[in-house]
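Hi L.,

You mentioned the student needs an example of a multi-chain input paired with its predicted structure. This one should do, with 959 residues in total across all chains.
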Amino acid sequence: MYYREAGDFKTSYRKDQQNFPIRFDRVHFWTMMVLAFAVIPFFINDYWANAVFVPFLIYAIATLGLNILTGYCGQVSLGSAGFMAVGAYASYKLMTSFPDLNFFVIVVLSGAITALVGTAFGLPSLRIKGFYLAVATLAAQFFLVWLFNKVPWFYNNSASGQISVPRRDMFGIAITGPEASAATKYLVCLAIVFVLGFIARNLTRGRIGRSWMAIRDMDFAAEIIGVDPLRAKLSAFAISSFFIGIAGSLFFTIYLGAVEVGEAFGIERSFLILFMVIIGGLGSIYGSFAGAAFLVLMPVLLKNALVGGLGWPSDVAAHLEFMIMGALIIFFLIVEPHGLARLWAVTKQKLRLWPFPY
Amino acid sequence: MTSTVTPDGRTIGDVLLEVKNITLRFGGVEAIKNISFDVREGEIRAIIGPNGAGKSSMLNVINGFYHPQEGEIFFHGRKRNAMKPSQIARQGIARTFQNIALFKGMNTLDNIMTGCFTHMKTSLLEQAIWWGRAEREEYVYREKVEHIIDFLEIQAIRKTPVGALPYGLQKRVELARALAAEPKLLLLDEPMAGMNVEEKEDMCRFILDVNAEFGTTTVLIEHDMGVVMDISDRVVVLDYGRKIGDGVPDEVRSNQEVIDAYLGVAHD
Amino acid sequence: MSADFLYAIEVLLNGLMAGVMYSLVALGFVLIFKASGVFNYAQGVMALFAALTLVGIMNGEVPFSHLINAMFGTQVHDFGWHVPALAAIGLTAVVMVFFAILVEKLILKHLIGQEPIILFMATIGLAYFMEGFGDMMWGADIKPLDVGLPKGGSIWIEENTAWLGGEGQRFFGFFIDKLDMSATLVAAILVIALTLFSQYTATGRALRAVADDHQAALSVGISLRAIWVITWSIAGFVALVAGIMWGSKSGVQFSLAFIALKALPVLMLGGFTSIPGAIVGGLIIGMGEKLFEFLAGPLIGGATENWFAYVLALIFLVFRPQGLFGERIIERV
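Structure written out for the whole complex:
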């Protein structure tokens, strides 16, 4: 009797195609949003913000971005971290060149610049498919990281080769830099995630989203329906890079504050985001959040349990973390290749009938 | 040319599509040799022939997957330049495939909605905000699609993932997707292959109904002679890439060359 | 001849040797991809794991000593014996076969019929697991590996090529590492052996049949699972050879796992399904990246090896999407 759609009839196409067609889901979603926006900010402290909430929100953006490209349009990319680096360095250059620019404008512009770079690296996707493309995106990953490392203009000739974020205020409150409070960081990220999540959902349910999925499922059939593969693939690359660029921008300005490109945006980061997409569920908005949450929380829990709980040396714990991470990925792929999102859908299906299974 | 009226009351108009002296080669192999025929507005035109006769290649030439080495194609009386399949789709040519080519990751409704792609106009930005035009447009086309769903009697599988559907229904969904594009010319590549008798009858009914209701010009490839002779207005016969017959079903049936191609010929 | 030109040739020769290493890893990729359609990202980590195991066995280390010490507060490190190189290599090969069986039983068996991208992801998971497992088992510190291969520059070649520079030039002959030369020799033997194996034995024929069409192979009574164990064992053995070569050169360490990343552009260049492609691709990339670094590196900041191979492969692929030797994929509508 807890999860029911009986009696929830739709009388218009608008109602049939709304985000949460079932009332129960709708109520839960908005309750969670109220909690996230109005309750958590009062209780959040530095540890929770830095270890859990802020990275979760930022990874959620990156995962949404990659999911649009890989899950919806079927183009596998291993260059996400490289594009995050573009977002981060774009923010840095914009912030230092135009000190008066509003922070949110900078974030959006960084996303736009990344979208341009992403589109350029997406061009080969017209000729190259599948694994060949996946490996080709590694070219973006390695080339971009090398570029930001070797060309001093990008880091304003700083001696350390690092970039660090200057302080920016809004309404007299520090948003970036060391003075920013945990609650502000969290709220800034949350607001951006909320807007981007909404956009991702809209894009994937309409004309454009269907053209991406058509290309993913059967590219020649998509063509005879009138979908231009060039436009569909490049728009997916652009939107995906826009999201990932914003994630990179926030990763630098809000989360880390100071960045050394090889360390922060290495190939492991690309893989991590891909794992989030796979574990969450390819082609699912909800899955992007679930995957990001899962892979952000898991290492924190493991570390607390092994180092904090059992008192193991941290290097042994790190090795075990690798093993568990790898084993979990394999386990998930074997049990449910469609990720947490499908698992949740199956659970809901069962809940509808519970406690009477027939 | 003036329009004529068929015995069952349909109007057949001017020439809609004309292919002239088409030759298509793959390396040294000539798949299609110097073939010409026309398709008139509102008619059901069948292409028949034994396996490997070049029927599917002909459809692929018409909708732009293959570019013939020689020959011209006129659509609406205008000569058509080499184009990408997506551009040709925008001119109003839709098709189905011999091996079903549905989008496996989507449900029936989304598959058919994808068919409306060329007609939907809202920009990326409007789509992102989903307010006003984008949303309204979605519901306008949803209504059109629902009409097609009713027409083809697939209401019950609206939200079913297409991969889970039986073969006959998948064929029907593919037809629905092609219809959603509101095509001027509909190409059907073996719409009844692998179906049992009931399914074939259903499919025939739909093809005839579509033609009668929307006046859609249809070109179809089919192996079942009974079906072809019953539903088509005119028939083109291909054999080894050559055209060996063209005309109304009765003419074709009595054509000696066609009989030879189908029944084989005694060499002495 | 001018010294600059001769140095460029020396760079090319050294690139050729580095290319052999890439080819070795790429070979493992191709073998598994052909036989099971799995794009095995873990190939590099397999090389690391094999090398770690080899060193561990040779030095008589106690497996999982860190873990045991952490859990029980003990201080165990090694058994105090040394195993001769050849015996240790044999033992490691056995370990790799055992590993192949485990991979088949625990992972591949459950993923039959999944999409290639899912299988690829699974091997990334496997790579993570093995990386943690290898470090957990043998420790994560850099270890020297010496199985008795000759080392250092070849004086004979240096002395006998010094005359090329001529009078007054600052050129003292080509510097070529003996280790690189033996690696080339071993790689050549390995490729010949593999080719003979796949052409002239029944198992080899079965391998090729599986590579061509899984279902058709099943229908004539070839056991897919047995074939998979065999290919993964062979790939494990190739990984061991690659691990020995790289390990002897620069020590057994984590960075060994990254040679997998270097092998990827080699595959793109050579085609995923071609053994000669893997070899030629490896050589081209090895020479290309060294030469590019030598010529253009100083102008644009150096360390171009990080990306050169990828960009080269990318540009190449735009013009020939199936790679140098890959089979042309004909799309039928």
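You could point out the following to them. Residues 44-266 of chain A form one domain. Chain A touches chain B at residues 12-14, 17, 199, 202-203, 205-211, 213-214, 216-218, 220-229, 235, 239, 283 (CB under 8 Å).

Best wishes,
N.
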